[in-house]
């Protein structure tokens, strides 16, 4: 029964376009791989990547000259990178990002058959290419998962603790929950995002249409509630499953999100709302906790939401909130400057009084001479 249900879920999950919307050809003059029928762009690479499950997937990499982040885009159902190609180019321009999109096994010109296990291997191959070929660091990568693409996206994000961010676009709670309103997770279910999303440590943006007829908006809302680090979600009123990019709010909200997560970690973390309840739950004894041994840092790495404690020069206290320490320092500096300013003016006033007194005595002395 479980195998049958899993097979049914897989059939409902995967609808590769037939025939594919593109072909991969090799340019005779340059030897470069091109995506036919699209015109060649100098800033676009077409790649074939081997996966650990023996398939070969097709990917495109779009460069932006001003990019400081790279978006790894896992597309939704009934689409391939030929249909997504122009969107990738537009997103790269508007968001100032490098973008890699890829086709799952059995989609487009990628070999093999689509399955949950294969999509996990597919996204790993794309991520590995970003690191090894393009020199992208985990801290500079944003994972983007649309619909079914939220499955491999959340799975990989849960295993990468230093990711810059995650975007979930019309995401699913799980494959089975799209078809049936089940309240628990069964072993034969696929893409168990509901169980994995609490493990994602980076900021998560959820985008969902309120009129989605394929994946109900409640999927996105429940996933957002389960995030460790929530970012302001975007619930597009009247938005369906495949038209969210047409809303002006879509690109505006994405720009705002990218701008926020691209700030330096110290600035971003200090302004994060989700840390408020963590700070409130800490006890005052945390301030007097004994320093950990150096081995503790290796054995129990801090979560990305933690900040290393700052010490005063006296080494008598610890502050978990660097902003509080900064305010104390600024206040102290202001008081010190004010005190010095008052002392300076007081000295100046005394000096002027002394000079006036000397002048007055000189005038008196001259008057006495004249009178004599």
Automatic annotation (TrEMBL):
Domain of life where this protein originates? Eukaryota
**Bias (Basic and acidic residues) ranges:** 273-313
Output the InterPro entries linked to this UniProt entry. Answer: AB_hydrolase_fold, Hydrolase_4
Instruction: Report residue spans for region: Disordered.
Output: 268-313
A Pfam family reported for this protein in Swiss-Prot or TrEMBL: Hydrolase_4
**Gene3D superfamilies for this protein:** alpha/beta hydrolase
Q: Which residues form the Serine aminopeptidase S33 domain?
A: 70-175
- What PANTHER family does the entry give? ALPHA/BETA HYDROLASE DOMAIN-CONTAINING PROTEIN (PTHR12277), ALPHA_BETA-HYDROLASES SUPERFAMILY PROTEIN (PTHR12277:SF154)
What is the official name of this protein in its record? Serine aminopeptidase S33 domain-containing protein
Q: What is the lineage of its organism?
A: Eukaryota, Viridiplantae, Streptophyta, Embryophyta, Tracheophyta
């Amino acid at each position: 029964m479980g195998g049958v249900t899993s097979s049914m879920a897989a059939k409902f999950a995967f609808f590769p376009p037939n025939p594919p919307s593109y072909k991969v050809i090799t340019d005779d003059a340059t030897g470069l791989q091109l995506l036919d029928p699209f015109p060649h762009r100098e800033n676009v690479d077409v790649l074939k990547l081997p996966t650990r499950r023996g398939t070969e997937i097709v990917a495109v990499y779009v460069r932006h000259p001003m990019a400081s982040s790279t978006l790894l885009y896992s597309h939704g159902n009934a689409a391939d990178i030929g249909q997504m190609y122009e969107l990738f180019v537009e997103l790269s321009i508007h968001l100032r990002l490098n973008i890699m999109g890829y086709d799952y096994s059995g989609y487009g010109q990628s070999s093999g058959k689509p399955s949950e296990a294969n999509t996990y291997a597919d996204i790993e191959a794309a991520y590995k290419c970003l690191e090894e070929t393009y020199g992208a660091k985990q801290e500079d990568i944003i994972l983007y998962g649309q619909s079914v693409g939220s499955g491999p996206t959340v799975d990989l994000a849960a295993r990468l603790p230093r990711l810059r961010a995650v975007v979930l676009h019309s995401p699913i709670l799980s494959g089975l929950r799209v078809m049936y309103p089940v309240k628990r997770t069964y072993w034969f279910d696929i893409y168990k995002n509901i169980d994995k999303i609490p493990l994602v440590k980076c900021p998560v943006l959820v985008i969902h249409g309120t009129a989605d007829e394929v994946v109900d908006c409640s999927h996105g809302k429940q996933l957002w509630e389960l995030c460790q680090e929530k970012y302001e979600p975007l619930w597009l009123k009247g938005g369906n499953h495949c038209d969210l990019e047409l809303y002006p709010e879509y690109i505006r909200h994405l720009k705002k999100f990218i701008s926020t997560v691209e700030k330096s970690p110290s600035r971003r973390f200090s302004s994060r709302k989700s840390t408020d309840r963590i700070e409130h739950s800490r006890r005052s004894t945390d301030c007097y906790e004994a320093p950990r041994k150096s081995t503790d840092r290796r054995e129990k790495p801090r979560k990305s939401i933690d900040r290393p404690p700052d010490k005063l020069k006296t080494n008598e206290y610890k502050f978990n909130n660097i902003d509080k320490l900064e305010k104390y320092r600024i206040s102290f500096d202001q008081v010190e400057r004010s005190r010095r300013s008052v002392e300076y003016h007081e000295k100046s006033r005394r000096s002027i009084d002394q000079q006036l007194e000397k002048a007055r005595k000189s005038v008196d002395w001259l008057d006495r001479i004249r009178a004599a």
